[in-house]
Every structure is written in structure tokens, then in C-alpha cells.
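Interim report, section 4.2 (structural modelling).
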Amino acid sequence: MSTVVAVLGGTGSEGGGIALRLAHTGHTVIIGSRDEERAKEAARAINDRIGQERAVGMANPAAVAAADLVLLTVPYAAQIKTLEPLRQALQGKILVDATVPLMPPKVSRVQLPNGASAVAHAQEVLGSEIRVVSAFQNVSAHHLNDLDHSVDCDVLVCGNDASACDQVIALIGAIGLRGIYAGTIENSAAAEAMTSLLIAINRRYKASGSGIRITGLSTSEPG
Amino acid sequence: MSTVVAVLGGTGSEGGGIALRLAHTGHTVIIGSRDEERAKEAARAINDRIGQERAVGMANPAAVAAADLVLLTVPYAAQIKTLEPLRQALQGKILVDATVPLMPPKVSRVQLPNGASAVAHAQEVLGSEIRVVSAFQNVSAHHLNDLDHSVDCDVLVCGNDASACDQVIALIGAIGLRGIYAGTIENSAAAEAMTSLLIAINRRYKASGSGIRITGLSTSEPG
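Predicted structure of the assembly:
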């Protein structure tokens, strides 16, 4: 029994890259968008790339209804607007929120909204019945979309529900990345802030997609 | 001409570990403390370990006066209290602030003071004439003090003065670590917050000193 994942914002490059890797590793993935036609188009592009029919496109509410686990990969400005109408549909599900609160034009500068995590704010807005897990803030979309190379970046996973975090870590492992539990949902602030540092680092060192690795673990199994 | 470094809080394990590595690689290092006797004692311990006379102990004001570069490694609660009386003595010097705003007992939870960087706050308090550089937040004291092993952790370096950041990155390189420029001083928030994640990770994975590495750089020379 495989987890059905909906990727809201899957028409964008970060969500599309994760959806591509999910489909490529045998998962059924639903691309969600406000615009059903764009969702179907993005799903077709994924199926064409992998030569299999594993992605389908739906409008967001249908995508959420059909999924066990919902991944949100929309720009910060759209985060709460996208989630609020889906609150009922999300009850009982896991929401993986990859939001990074970048504030253009100074995207290489840390600017946490109200000095706190945007994902922790989503957990507050949605209420504790929806298990929100933060992940994927630091993974380069460019690398996700390049199936010829493995992604040299760990995924920091933060959330208040240990079992939900474990499921997300397992899913991350299934697409070939390493997910690492990094504390409760407020801790997402560090992952969100780190993205601006990676942008600053990309500029300074002319890198196309710097990332992070956690060192010093003798095992990536929880102790 | 070698940089003379004063380590305020060098009687503690993080500052002591950096001072040890500086002395071990041939630098003259001044241990600063509120208590001159404790500073001298910590300096003697370093000299005994390396078998050379490279560390001296002084009270903080004398340590700052004698140094080109001042490193602050005190607990968050002591940060501003330590700096304020040294403001005049610090004029024209580089202050490397390693402060991490941990709020016991919940040290594994991100709690940035007023939602912002503690080091950026020091820059505000001291004024722009003192070049404040943030560094060393994520490096395990345990690993710094173990000279038999190299430290598997990059040092994120944030600051508003590019030349000061470059000098700090060179010093970090001289003690065998890799310093990486990661943006202006506000960006220290990410490094400070990351320390709580590393504490959470240490607990979850039974690690003694997890760290971070930046991936995806073809060179660590600025582009």
C-alpha cells in the first residue's frame, strides 16, 4: 500500500521536481493547482519524462481529497491563501509544508515573518488536528529536476507529530534523499532562514544549487 | 605578521576549543575573562596541551586592547553585558561573535530573541564602527577540543563588512575549518537557529556533536 501524494504547487519547479522524483520511483502522484488544466499539463510532462503514467492533474480540492499526504510548494505570498479553503479537506491528513518566506527583492536576506517560522504559522492557522510537517526548504529545484544526478542535500524535517515526521522521512528516503528529524514545528524557522543563506552562498561562490548536509551522525536511524 | 586573537569566554569549552586550535596552529592567543586568574589558568592548560607557550590570560579589557581580532564566546545571557563596557576598546577592531541565543531549558527549540539574530543585535548595540562578524555557532565544542580529529563542520560567516568577513574566513581556514560567507549580519539568525536543530538532532540520533556542511560548491573561493 503506497502513500498517495498530492503536490499543491506541483506546476512550479520545486514541487514539480519532487513530483517528478516521486513518479520516477514508482509512486502515484497528484499534481494540484488552482488551475486544473495547468495541473493536467504538468502531470503529462512528468509522465512523458518517465515514460509511465504515474502523475495525474487535479484542481487543489480534488487533489487533497484523493491524497493521504499533501505537499505544499507554493510561493510564501500564496501559502495561507492556498491552505485556508482546504482546511476541511485536510482534516486527518499530513500536510508537508515546504514554504520558505522569501521577501523579494532581498531574497538572500533572512526575513522571517514576525520573526518566526512560516510553517509553524500554517500549523497555528490550520489547528492541531492537521499534522503539519516542515520539509524540503533547502533542496534545490534545479537538482530535483535533474534525474541524472542524486541530490547532495539533506532534508530537515520538523513537526510536532513524531509519527507524521517518520512517514515523511520514509517518503523522502523513497525518492533517494535523506530526511533528518530536527525538532518541533518552530524549528522550521532555521530551515526557512537557511534558504536565504544558500541563495547568498550561490551568489558569492557562483554555485547553481548549494545545499546542506548534517554531519556527525553514525546512523540516520533514530536512537 | 600574524593576527593576535583574543577569545573572550575562552575559559569555556567552545571558546577554549577555538583558542586551543589557534595556539596549536601557531597563533598567539589571548584568553579573556572577567576573572584574570581564570583566564591565566585556561591559558596555562592550553600551553600544557600543546607543549608551547602561545596562550596568555588577561582580564577582558586588557585582552581586547592587545588584540587585532576579538572573538566572543560567552553564554547568550552574558553577551551584551560583556560587550557594553568594551565598546570603546573595540573601536576599529573586528568582533567575531559566536553567540547562540539558547533559552534553557528548551535549548533544542528555536527561540530567536525578538525573532531576530542575537549577533545582529550586538552590531546594533555597538554601532557600525565596530565590524561585527558572526561565526562558529554550529561547531561542536567537543570536536574543537579533540585535536586528534578534524572538525567535520563548516563555519557560516555573516557580516556587513566584506573585508572583515574575508579575514575571519582566512583565520577559520588557518585552524583547519572551512568558513563560508553566508550574507549580511541578519543572516546570522539562520546559524543561531540551526544550533537548536543540531541539539535536537543529537538527541534523536544519539550523536555527540552533529554539524553542517554546505554542498554544491565547486570551490570555496568567492566567485
